[in-house]
């Protein structure tokens, strides 16, 4: 398992863009946007962790509807124009099958398939984070972004314990009781178990796809 | 049942204090703090509904630990010094037994007992709201406050539908699964059913009373 998630990617709106090698993963895929002289006055900013994930709709390598809605709500209704008072911490948890296979049939997979798949997942995850980081830059709010692997509900709670944000923001599909049995309840779990305040934000009614379990 | 809750009590930090008769309930108990010339520029403020309740500890006519913690978090971490960007909507739901009795044995109650009890509940509820309104005034954030009666989880969701806040903030005792069976789960219900984003905030570990079901 690669541990890209151990490398925190720092972004801020005044920055030098610099590609570097992550000291832990030895990959060159992590880009660090380094801050210039705006460290101290932001130390008291409210640190808002936003969990982001891919859309589940096939052929749709975009943020899920619910995490996009949660992120946009946070900027529009909480951060507003007070960008110096908040810092956004973007956490993306990538889910893989136990044997590391996602969409490839394990019987026919070669070592190259493994490698390609891992690379493609890394790139997908970084593209996802890039989407949100770009939005933060546009608005001028400081942010950090990183990737972890595992079961989203467990990893999110672990990261809350590790990073100690002031607030965790989660998008939710707002599915009914019966639909939830099949698709899991990350937000319900985190409301109970995350050791910080949790804000759950449902999708807008006009954004729900034809199958509500999609996102 | 008196419908004090139908009368919205408006507060702001620049105001005239004026006792008046509520047009619906015909009581003189509602005090209106009227705004002076600061209507329009606040129309776009983020409207944060905070549900507040009494402490369950006997002889303790104060806000519950969890709602006080939720309120203080909201001011400190979200509103911060950006008071003009937010408006606090304080909702207090009073719970009464079906027959209107709270602590009085119905067999021995006279009509005067009824009246006294209702008056005392009204006064308790207004004192509770006053506590929070005073804090808003100190900080300089605009607020509204009102009382409703009924089952808190249902009334809170009804009020969200009626008032359409941008956010609902709820304090939570953060009780475990078995304790919850006995003490109810207002926050869990509202996270699922309230038609707006919901922020749940647990008590601090060092604020939990000897019986965790107390608040």
From TrEMBL, chains A, B:
<dbReference type="InterPro" id="IPR014729">
    <property type="entry name" value="Rossmann-like_a/b/a_fold"/>
</dbReference>
<dbReference type="Pfam" id="PF00582">
    <property type="entry name" value="Usp"/>
</dbReference>
<feature type="domain" description="UspA">
    <location>
        <begin position="63"/>
        <end position="202"/>
    </location>
</feature>
<dbReference type="InterPro" id="IPR006015">
    <property type="entry name" value="Universal_stress_UspA"/>
</dbReference>
<dbReference type="GO" id="GO:0016208">
    <property type="term" value="F:AMP binding"/>
</dbReference>
<dbReference type="InterPro" id="IPR044187">
    <property type="entry name" value="At3g01520-like_plant"/>
</dbReference>
<protein>
    <recommendedName>
        <fullName>UspA domain-containing protein</fullName>
    </recommendedName>
</protein>
<dbReference type="InterPro" id="IPR006016">
    <property type="entry name" value="UspA"/>
</dbReference>
């Amino acid at each position: 398992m690669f541990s890209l998630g151990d490398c925190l990617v720092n972004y801020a709106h005044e920055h030098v863009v610099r590609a570097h090698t992550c000291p832990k993963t030895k990959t060159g895929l992590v880009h660090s946007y380094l801050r210039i002289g705006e460290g101290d006055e932001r130390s008291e900013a409210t640190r808002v962790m936003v969990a982001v994930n891919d859309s589940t709709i096939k052929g749709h390598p975009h943020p899920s509807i619910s995490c996009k809605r949660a992120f946009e709500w946070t900027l529009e209704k909480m951060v507003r124009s007070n960008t110096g008072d908040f810092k956004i911490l973007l956490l993306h948890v990538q889910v893989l099958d136990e044997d590391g296979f996602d969409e490839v049939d394990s019987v026919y997979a070669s070592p190259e398939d493994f490698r390609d798949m891992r690379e493609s997942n890394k790139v997908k995850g970084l593209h996802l984070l890039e989407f949100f980081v770009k939005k933060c830059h546009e608005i001028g709010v400081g942010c950090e972004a990183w990737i972890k692997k595992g079961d989203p509900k467990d990893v999110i709670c672990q990261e809350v314990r590790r990073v100690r944000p002031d607030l965790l923001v989660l998008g939710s599909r707002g599915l009914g009781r019966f639909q939830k049995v099949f698709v899991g309840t990350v937000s319900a779990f985190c409301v109970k178990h995350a050791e910080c305040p949790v804000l759950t934000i449902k999708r807008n009614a006009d954004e729900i796809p034809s199958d509500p379990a999609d996102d």
